[in-house]
Amino acid sequence: MSAPVRVSLPAALIALFPGAPCELELSAATIAEVLGALDQRFPGMRDRLADSTPRVRRHISIFVNGERASLQTPLAPGAEVLVMTAISGG
Length: 90
Prior knowledge:
Elements: E1 3-8, H1 11-14, E2 23-28, H2 31-41, H3 45-49, E3 60-64, E4 67-68, E5 80-85
Parallel strand pairs: 1-5
Antiparallel strand pairs: 1-2, 3-4, 3-5
């Protein structure tokens, strides 16, 4: 059953989807459902976050309440979902 969760998106992703907020509330039971809901609001966003295997892309990290998550990770009501892009440098 879907429950309301809070989703935080990185600035790099928001730049690609004009009008996307940095934080929003969605109803979802898993991370896969979060990506589906994001894609409904912002077409193409799922493809930026997950590949066709399906799996979270290598350069993306998703956390639920501070713990690393996969597409199958279940979400409790009020969960905090944080989407991050990889940071590289030398």
